[in-house]
């Protein structure tokens, strides 16, 4: 009898600890996700679901004939690619700088990390001024507009503006991850290499680099998913312009839903977007993990 | 001989590092100096220091963007969301680790597996679903209210937080908890008196990571909050900037004001922020 009561009590306690979280989580994430999955196969009008019809893969088929989406899709891949390269090369270089023997490393570390604290939206606005006003003025002063012109007014340059601002934002974050990895390498290993007469570059390539491979996996993952999900700097810096040439996937989904009111099509795009992120990031993590083991 | 070479190399490195730092801070500098300049001055000189340091644009920008209200809103939403995320995630994770049966593993799997779902994939149905939670008679509504927004932040913040807590709690020994239970504490008391204090390091990490995200988030509040008086800082910055892009000095002053809270927080909590990011990434 007593043990029955206790087991009931235990179950009740477990429920008190778990049910509130689960309730919120299910209603905010899981239910909308399943709803979205269903909606993407219907002609839902965005308001009442009752009265909507099942239309099979019509919305998904329409995605492929949506040239704007396909462009945004390609652009997002290009953006993610350059972000991965720049963010990680710069982030790792900054990490090496502030773990070297320079005197002001703590201060500089804080400076490098600072842009990351300012949200993507505000960062985009700051840079908007830099590109449209400061650049133009410098161009006038130098008397050449080959580099210093209004970048946001030119499709290719506007894309690179997005990459620059994105790098400026994320490099400090991955720097912290690389610093953690570099600091965990024991001094003895490095001293042993010095005694054996290993050069700096050799030491980096053969000892430091393999030991920070796990940090590499995480940083690649974060830059990859972060770049795919980029929305804030896109909307504040270029707003998708000029002439819709810098619209990334997230902005295309948003516009399809809330400006064009094509909700089921937008939802189908959102599901495709999820699958792409899933496939790309899982592939990346599996490959990186495999390399970690081999090293 | 070798020593001087190393010394020169260190000086070169230091110069490089400073140059990089200066380049990275350049946009911030440009934003600040132009927030003091008149229209004409911006037109001719965006780089130099301003002729006079007048805070007139600041006063006007703060008034136009309703800064104090926005700051209060951001503070309320962020602080309550983080506290509740910490409480719920810590309690749930601890129970899941200690139950350690099939059900617990399944629940954990559900939390963790959904971490990859991007916000865009759920936002459209979420808005429709949350607007249906609405009881006009008592004025209850999940959209256009702070508590509705907080509810959604908790939902989105739980995955990663449960994941981090779960990983940490697995390494916390059970012995102390068992001793407390023998002394007559029930699970509730054991958790709050014994377990929760031991979780402080990971609680800091969870708090910091959620703070960086929620404070700066723009998209979710832009979808749920329609009343101007409820706007958070990113939201009011967005509307303000759209309205005053022609008046760059005002726009810059507005931007400076909106990042001041972050900078002040950074000055005081820098150590914890960097530690939090490091610990969060190792998992």
UniProtKB/TrEMBL annotation, chain B:
Record's subcellular location: Cell membrane
UniProt keyword Cytoplasm, yes or no: no
GO cellular component: plasma membrane
Subcellular location, principal: membrane
Pfam families: BPD_transp_1 (PF00528)
Mode of membrane association: Multi-pass membrane protein
InterPro entries: MetI-like, MetI-like_sf
PROSITE patterns: ABC_TM1 (PS50928)
Location of the ABC transmembrane type-1 domain: 71-269
SUPFAM superfamilies from the UniProt entry: MetI-like (SSF161098)
Residues spanning the membrane: 12-32, 75-96, 103-127, 147-169, 190-215, 246-268
Keywords: Cell membrane, Membrane, Transmembrane, Transmembrane helix, Transport
GO biological process assignments: transmembrane transport
Family: Belongs to the binding-protein-dependent transport system permease family.
Name used for this protein in its record: Sugar ABC transporter permease
Natural source organism: Paenibacillus selenitireducens
């Amino acid at each position: 009898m007593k043990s029955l009561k206790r087991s009931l009590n235990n179950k009740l306690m477990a429920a008190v600890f778990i049910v509130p979280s689960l309730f919120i989580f299910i209603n905010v994430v899981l239910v909308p996700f399943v709803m979205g999955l269903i909606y993407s196969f219907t002609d839902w009008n965005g308001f009442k679901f009752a009265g909507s019809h099942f239309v099979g893969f019509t919305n998904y088929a329409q995605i492929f004939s949506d040239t704007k989406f396909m462009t945004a899709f390609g652009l997002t891949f290009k953006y993610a690619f350059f972000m991965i390269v720049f963010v990680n090369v710069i982030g790792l270089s900054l990490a090496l700088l502030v773990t070297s023997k320079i005197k002001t490393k703590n201060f500089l570390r804080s400076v490098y990390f600072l842009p990351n604290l300012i949200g993507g939206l505000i960062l985009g606005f700051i840079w908007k001024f830099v590109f449209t006003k400061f650049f133009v003025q410098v161009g006038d002063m130098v008397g050449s507009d080959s580099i210093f012109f209004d970048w946001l007014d030119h499709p290719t340059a506007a894309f690179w503006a997005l990459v620059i601002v994105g790098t400026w934002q994320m490099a400090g974050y991955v720097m912290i991850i690389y610093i953690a990895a570099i600091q965990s390498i024991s001094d003895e290993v490095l001293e042993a290499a010095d005694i054996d007469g290993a050069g700096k570059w050799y030491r980096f390539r053969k000892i430091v680099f393999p030991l920070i491979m796990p940090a590499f996996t995480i940083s690649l993952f974060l830059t990859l998913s972060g770049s795919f999900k980029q929305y804030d700097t896109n909307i504040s810096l270029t707003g998708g312009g000029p002439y819709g040439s810098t619209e990334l996937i997230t902005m295309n989904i948003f516009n399809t839903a809330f400006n064009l009111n094509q909700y089921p099509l937008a939802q189908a795009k959102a599901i495709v977007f999820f699958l792409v992120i899933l496939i790309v990031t899982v592939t990346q993590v599996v490959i990186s993990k495999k390399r970690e083991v081999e090293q | 001989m070798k020593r001087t070479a190393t010394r020169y190399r260190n000086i070169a490195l230091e110069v490089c590092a400073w140059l990089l730092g200066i380049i990275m801070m350049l946009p911030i500098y440009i934003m600040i100096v132009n927030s003091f300049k008149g229209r004409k001055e911006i037109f001719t000189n965006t780089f130099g220091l301003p002729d006079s340091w007048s805070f007139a644009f600041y006063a006007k920008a703060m008034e136009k963007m309703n800064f104090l209200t926005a700051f209060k809103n951001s503070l309320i939403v962020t602080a309550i969301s983080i506290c509740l995320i910490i409480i719920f995630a810590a309690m749930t994770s601890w129970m899941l680790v200690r139950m350690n049966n099939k059900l617990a593993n399944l629940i954990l799997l559900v939390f963790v597996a959904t971490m990859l779902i991007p916000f865009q994939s759920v936002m459209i149905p979420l808005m429709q679903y949350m607007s249906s939670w609405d009881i006009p008679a008592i004025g209850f509504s999940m959209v256009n209210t702070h508590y509705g927004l907080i509810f959604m932040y908790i939902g989105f913040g739980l995955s990663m937080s449960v994941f981090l807590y779960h990983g940490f709690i697995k390494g916390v020994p059970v012995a102390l908890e068992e001793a407390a239970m023998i002394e007559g504490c029930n699970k509730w008391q054991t958790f709050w008196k014994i377990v929760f204090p031991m979780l402080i390091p990971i609680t800091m990490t969870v708090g910091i990571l959620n703070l960086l995200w929620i404070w700066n988030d723009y998209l979710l509040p832009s979808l749920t909050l329609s009343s101007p008086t409820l706007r958070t800082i990113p939201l009011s910055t967005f509307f303000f900037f759209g309205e005053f892009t022609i008046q760059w000095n005002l726009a810059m002053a507005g931007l400076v004001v909106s990042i001041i809270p972050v900078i002040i927080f950074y000055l005081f909590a820098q150590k914890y922020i960097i530690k939090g990011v490091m610990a969060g990434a190792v998992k």
